[in-house]
Every structure is written in C-alpha cells, then in structure tokens.
Design brief:
Layout (H helix, E strand, L loop, with lengths): L5 E5 L4 H6 L1 H10 L5 E5 L4 H4 L5 E6 L9 H12 L3 E6 L4 H9 L4 E5 L10 E3 L8 H6 L21 H11 L7 E5 L12 H14 L4 E4 L6 H9 L8 E3 L6 H10 L2 E5 L2 H8 L4 E4 L15 E4 L19 H4 L3 H14 L1
Parallel strand pairs: 1-2, 1-4, 2-3, 4-5, 5-6, 7-8, 7-10, 8-9, 10-11, 11-12
InterPro entries: Glyco_trans_9, LPS_LOS_Heptosyltrfase, RfaF
Organism: Pseudoduganella lurida
Catalytic activity: an L-alpha-D-Hep-(1->5)-[alpha-Kdo-(2->4)]-alpha-Kdo-(2->6)-lipid A + ADP-L-glycero-beta-D-manno-heptose = an L-alpha-D-Hep-(1->3)-L-alpha-D-Hep-(1->5)-[alpha-Kdo-(2->4)]-alpha-Kdo-(2->6)-lipid A + ADP + H(+)
C-alpha cells in the first residue's frame, strides 16, 4: 500500500460489533497517519461510525439484506475503484462483502477466512478456538496474520455538548437533571432481555433514592413495546421515566448515553455504545457469554448467574423457563448500580 492511499473498512451489520471494531481504526491510524479511512456501513449502523474521530467519510451500503445482488455490487465496486483505495478490511465474514473490494480492484484485501473466501481475501487471518473476545478479534486485522496477539485498546466514541443538548430537547429530558439510561431491548431475541418488571422495579429504586433523577428507556422502534411494559410497571414513578424508544435517531441515542450518569443494558449494541463513551455500565447477561463481549468502561459490571444451562446462545430460552434472566432480580442489580450513581 502506497503512503497516503485511502483505506476502506467494511462494517459489520450490528451496532455493537461496529463499536467493538473501533480499536482496529486506532491501530490503522497509528500505522498510516496520512491515509484517510473510509467506512462502508449499512444505514442502520452508519451513525456509530460518524462518532469516531479516525473516520474520514462514512459510505452507506445500498444493498438489501439477504440477496447476493451481484450486479448491484459490481456497479458499486466501480464507484469505489475511482476513490483509489490501497487496502480494504472486510469485517463481515460473508462471501458477498468480500466480493466488493475484489470487484473494485483493491489490491490488499484483509479479513478472516469466513465463508472460504480464498482469493477474495488475500491477507487472510484465522480465529482461535475458542474464539477471542470481539475487540481483539477485530483489532488483530491491523497486524500481519502471523503476528503475536497484542492487548487491544478500548473502543472510543465521542459526542459533543451540542449533540447532547439537542438529543435531550428532542427526548423531553432536562439537561440539568441526573439521567440514567435503560436499554431493555435486544435485537438478537427475547432470551437476551431482562424482564420488563425487573427494569420497572429498578427504576422505582432509582427514583426513590434520587427524586431528581430521570430514567430514559432507549431502543429502536422494535423495542417500543417492551419499553412500554417497563413504563406500565413503574406505578408512582412514571413521571420520571421516559420511553423514547423509536423516537430518537441512533445518533441522538448515542448522545443521550454520552450524557448518562449510568447505563443499565442487556447484551446489546447500546451496551457497547455506553462502554465506548466510558459511562458507568451495568451489563446483564443470560444466554450469552459475558467474557466474549464484556463492557469496558472504567466503571463497569457484568452480571450473570452463570447457570449450568448458559450460555446457550439461543434467541429464545430452549428450556422455557428463562431462569438466567428471571432469577437475576432487581435488588441484585440495584446493589451494583447504587454505588455507581454515587460515584457519577
């Protein structure tokens, strides 16, 4: 790769994975300080990349989910070729994303083996068994495949005071009052969701101790219903709890998290946004492994009952009881969160 040539990073499809890939950009920037770094990302994930200081430009993928769309990929690759990329880092493990830099004639194409992508990926990495946590998994792509593993830096996002003020105004939140953010949703499936009644009991405990506090329920439009369940369970504390799921853009949600005194989240993309903004975080795990994608804030706790049946990594509880989440009660989470609020 010639000095100063542009670098293309092809984003994962999930918000949390995009955040956990940010240390790769830190390493690329350190190794190629003069090279602009562009990111090709799905529209739903693009706002996260725009909060990373290393990114020169975010390009949004025009492809539909699922189909190969070979003709469309060829046309888009022609556009990328004119931008003069010297290297591409392909983070999704699918064949169809590896096609894009190959069709664009980008000479250095870096990624993991994935779906047997020999030829399409010409600097090929292989993951360990068992797999590494996600942050070092992505960060390793900045080095040669045979290089020894190195500790990865922490992901870092940034928000401005103007973004925070605008997001609070949009959500109807008082800028001067303490804010606690809940993320009750999980795109992966219902098994990753802590019960709404537990979130409601936790909100009541927060407001009882800190009457000035406000609790914001964040998420996508798909999370609106589960956040409504939380709101319905808070009884006398309802005035202090705001369901803004689906009413803020992802960029505005990131800004609200950046303003939060603490964040309580399932294992979801917003959890990793909170960590990357270095907010105090309580992360709740049931069917997934807290060691695979842990929070990395200065002040963070990963709570898991670590039952014999977990991590099952299933979208719905295969045993039907959901004990890994149901038996992790609000009192336990409150004992972890309470001192964080005192330190915030």
């Amino acid at each position: 790769m010639m000095a100063g040539q542009r670098i293309l990073v092809i984003s994962p499809n999930w918000i949390g994975d995009a955040v956990m890939a940010q240390p790769l950009l830190q390493r690329l920037r350190a190794a190629h300080p003069e090279a602009p770094i562009d990111v090709l990302a799905p529209p739903a994930v693009a706002p996260v990349w725009k909060q990373m200081r290393e990114v020169a430009e975010v390009l949004q993928t025009p492809f539909r989910h699922g189909p190969l769309q070979l003709r469309e990929r060829w046309r888009y690759a022609r556009l990328l070729k004119r931008r003069g990329y010297g290297a591409a880092y392909v983070l999704p493990n699918t064949l169809k994303y590896a096609l894009i830099p190959w069709l664009a004639g980008i000479r250095r194409r870096v990624g993991y083996k994935g779906e047997s992508r020999y030829g399409l990926i010409n600097v090929m990495h292989h993951d360990d068994v068992p797999p590494r946590p996600m942050v070092p998994f992505y960060a390793a792509l900045a080095n040669a495949p045979e290089a020894p593993l190195q500790p990865a830096p922490r992901p870092v996002l940034q928000v401005t005071a103007e973004q925070i003020a605008g997001a609070c105004a949009k959500a109807g939140l008082a800028l001067e009052r303490p804010l606690v953010v809940f993320a009750p949703g999980a795109e992966f499936g219902s098994a990753k969701r802590w019960p709404p009644a537990h979130f409601a009991a936790l909100a009541q405990a927060i407001v009882a101790q800190q009457p000035a506090a406000q609790v914001a329920l964040l998420g996508s439009p798909k999370d609106r219903a589960v956040c409504d369940e939380v709101l319905a369970g808070v009884a006398g504390s309802a005035a202090a709890v705001h369901n803004v799921a689906g009413q803020t853009s992802l960029a505005e949600a990131v800004a609200l998290i950046g303003h939060a005194a603490a964040v309580v989240s399932n294992d979801s993309g917003l959890l990793h946004v909170a960590s990357s903004l270095n907010r105090p975080v309580v992360a709740i795990y049931g069917p997934t492994d807290p060691d695979h994608a842990p929070p990395f804030s200065d002040l963070a706790a990963a709570l898991s009952l670590r039952l014999d049946c977990s991590p099952c990594r299933q979208r719905e509880c295969p045993l039907g009881h959901h004990d890994c989440m149901r038996k992790l009660d609000a009192a336990t989470v409150w004992r972890t969160l309470q001192p964080m609020l005192g330190a915030a």
